[in-house]
Amino acid sequence: MSNANANKSENYHRISEDDLLRYIENRMTEAEKHALELELQENAFLSDAVDGLQETTAAHTKTNIEELNRYLSKQLQHKRKRSGKKIKHLGLIVLAVVILLLLVLGSYAVLHHLKF
């Protein structure tokens, strides 16, 4: 392998996925951006990868937003349905709580009365 090819290969391995994402999201410094753009001009494979990543990222973003909106809509519908439900046998539950309280108070009164 020639020296020029070895240098290109070495540069390619130094460019990480994070670097590519930062480039696409425009979060690189001007110097970093310039260095990467020079590499993109020399490396057609890397240039194609960046182009594909830009298209994929935009498509995934739109798809993810649509998916989140559908999910949130379903959750809100489910919550609305659930909030409208009435508690079954509410009268029996209240009666059981009242009886339980009376038993506790009665037990306390009996135990308290026996101590004297």
Q: How is the biggest beta sheet arranged? A: none
The helix/strand order is HHHHH
Summarize the amount of helix as a percent range. Answer: over 70%
Secondary structure tally, helices: 5
Count of individual beta strands = 0
Gyration radius, to the nearest Å?
Answer: 34 Å
Q: Find the structural class using helix and strand composition.
A: mainly alpha
Strand residue content: under 5%
Instruction: Report how far apart the termini are.
Output: 103 Å
Whole-number mean pLDDT: 79
Low-confidence stretches: 5-12
Query: Rough shape?
Result: elongated
Describe it.
There is one protein chain. With 116 residues, this protein is mainly α. Helices cover 85% and strands 0% of the residues. The protein has helices spanning 3-14, 17-24, 30-42, 44-83, 90-115. The protein is elongated.
A few lines on this structure:
With 116 residues, the protein is an all-alpha fold.
Q: What attributes does this structure have?
A:
0% strand, single chain, 116 residues, mainly alpha
List the helices and strands and how they pair.
Layout (H helix, E strand, L loop, with lengths): L2 H12 L2 H8 L5 H13 L1 H40 L6 H26 L1
